[in-house]
Amino acid sequence: MGVRRSTLWLIPAGLLVGCAASFFVPGLAPYSRYHFYRLKCGGEPVIATDFAAARSYRLPGQGLPVNPFDTEFFCTEAEAQDAGFHRQLP
Questions:
Q1: pTM score
Q2: Quick one: average pLDDT of 6-13?
């Protein structure tokens, strides 16, 4: 009860600003976008990268879920292939 009522709005506002900003911070953006695509696709997305000109993708359950070098997310393997990515070898 020591917190004044007039400043309680700062907590959800700060959380909202922090979440929105994480989409634009290079090290955090893939992690935020990954969870966005989990909701959008209704499950694990296909994760793609163009790091070092690899232009490869990995399917859900193949390797680590997400890392800072992942640049694209797709709902289906066909979408990743249509965008010019090829399947990463296990």
A1: 0.70
A2: 79
Mean pLDDT, to the nearest integer, of 58-67?
Answer: 84
Q: What per-residue confidence (pLDDT) applies to 4?
A: 59
Counted residue by residue, the chain has a size of 90
CA pseudo-torsion sign 73, 77, 81, 83:
negative
Here the tokens at position 59 are 């399917």
Encoded tokens for 6: 């007039």
**Is the Cβ–Cβ distance between 46 and 75 less than 8 Å?**
yes
Looking at residue 58, its pLDDT comes to 92
Is residue 19 in some structural domain? no
> 85 Cβ partners below 8 Å, 6+ apart?
48, 50, 55, 56, 57, 72
Domains in the chain: how many in total? 1
Residue 1 CB partners (closer than 8 Å, separation 6+): none
Domain that holds residue 90: 29-90
Whether 73 and 57 have beta carbons less than 8 Å apart is answered as no
